[in-house]
Request: fold
Amino acid sequence: MRHLLSAADLDAAEITEILDLGEEMALVQGRPVKKLPALRGRTVVNLFFEDSTRTRSSFELAGKWLSADVINISAKGSSVSKGESLRDTVLTVASMGVDALVIRHMASGAPLQAARWFAELGLGVHVVNAGDGTHEHPTQALLDAFTLRRHFRAQEPRRGDDRDLETFAGRRIAVVGDITHSRVARSNVALLTTLGAQVVLVAPPTLLPAGVDGWPVEVRTDLDAVLGEVDAVMMLRVQRERMSGGYFPTPREYTVGYGLTRARLGLLRPGAAIAHPGPMNRGLEISADAADSAGSLILDQVAAGVAVRMSVLYQLLGGADEGGALR
Amino acid sequence: MSSPTSGGTGDVLVLGADLAGRGAADLLIRDGRFADPHDAHPDAHRVDAYGLVALPGLVDLHTHLREPGREDAETVATGTAAAARGGYTAVLAMANTSPVTDTAEAAEHLLDVGRSAGSAQVVPIGAVSKGLAGEELAELGLMARSAARTRVFSDDGHCVADARLMRRALEYVRAFDGVVAQHAQDPRLAGPDACCDEGPVSGRLGLPGWPAVAEAGIVARDVGLAELTRSRLHVCHVSTAETVDVLRWAKQRGIEVTAEVTPHHLLLTVDELLGYDPTYKVNPPLRSAEDVAAVRDALTDGTIDVVATDHAPHARHDKEHAFVDAASGMLGLETALAVVVETMVRPGSLGWGEVATRMSSVPAHIARLGDQGRPLAVGEPANLTLVDPARRTTVDRDTSVSLSRNNPWHGRDLPDPVVATWWAGRATYGR
Reply:
């Protein structure tokens, strides 16, 4: 594999390779001097068609700590409205001779289309999907798995759990909220399922995607009944445009039905983890008490983001002939 | 196969073709009409058509010629050349050009361009509403009275969503035997972003869903309006099993409704979208295999009356956006008969006589075209398509005579049936 386009493209061994290398990268993060020379002379372009402070910063730090030259291009606004086709935009950037394009786009599939155009023209640029529409966000799922793996191994060590399939076997992880429009949910379903975990999707029926019955998950609509059965709960952000889209009557009603409120914290098993991909709507899908509770992994996720993205960039670009999970 | 151009006398004698499944006979083309082959001049140009099938020239109820306005994507000349190559002798040109065909002047202009540049008869379709805006009726009667003699009215590309406007349009066109061709898409259920059949694939790909009920719901309403107004309704590009059920019910009730299916909805499924290739973006979207089976059955039993192409050329750059942003539509004229042969004739669902009704005589009748879709008989206009049922090819988009390349059949092995086409006795295609 020469790109990271979808979490569904990764098998368990490849995921492990990325996560294990991420642990090594995390050690670098803890040092006073964080720079590794690994990608010196390589160029990474963050091509963001959609605003994202945290994902872009995370990729930027990841590239810089590996000594790559990193450029951020904000191509906000639809390429249609600017008159330039997506193909022209991505080919223009790729033709400058960059090594990797990290693409964030508001339209599902855009990074996959870019990768196909590069292949048709024989361009060797690597593509990382940094979130495409309501499709996938594979590095988010990798950093979530990285964070959960650490949590499970520390919280409830198992024999042989230096192997990911052992760490995740039978773990039940609830993903709660707007599944329909969530690229985080799609990538997490693919990745966590590959690792052997059981994913439980919890949402009002208006926010469950078409065909979800065919996904390898359990689908529930009653959050209270689920909370006591899971090892981790991942709360999804409610996008502002959904609040007026008729998917649920009012934000207040959403919080009562699907928010991780202070009262609901008591329903969680002891030691259960709380995750959120950010940015949070405190008071809507997650209460301050939950976000700041002892079980919250939210800041760990942010830290893991840089380490995992360093690992991904290294896997793609590190050494011309070195085999890595993504090569 | 010899060239279909006429000999020195002007007579063309087509020898031995099977006349739409009714047995082999000779055909004489003289002065634009079929004449008695026994009267052929000894020097008549002879076309060996033994083993071939003769069909009346095909009639497409649903073509986008893009002229005026987007002559970079298609023109009347190139679009009708593609039509001739696909065996068509008449195309009904949709109104969503720029400017929109919503006045008698616009319709007559298109008629004139067709007469001077066309390789097939160009029949303007008039818009139902001014500017396709769905608010007030376009000048339907003036278009009907114009030299274009418009009988088919459609806002295609947009649904006439307002029930009262649709009712008035149906009522009004009854005065001149018109028909309203509806693009059935409830805009509240399938908005402008909707681009993928709502189901497992849309959910997995994260593409905005276009649910089947958004089509069937409008058709259910419109057959009711057709019954209320005692007028003629035509349903464009039927894509779902649900719509087929509604049509079957309406026809049993005696409602005057006709319907079309496109070649792509007869063969391609939503699975083509898995690679996010905008070549496969079309409206209504490609559906499930069950829907494909349902529209094939409906075409077989006559619930769906005709095959229409929805030939929709697009400049390459309009297809090179992200999937949800790319233009909708695919080419169809050159390959329509090939797909019908592959999906309907070869499996034995349709005979050649039924192909002739569904692709020529019935569409001509719906559009009230007097000189098209006629029997292959002495005295009739010489609109003729010669077909080789056995020949196959791998479709190559670069050999198309269309200006556009949004060809979903590129690289596929398909029948290559059309051998030659004559429109009013004039050879418009031959290989």
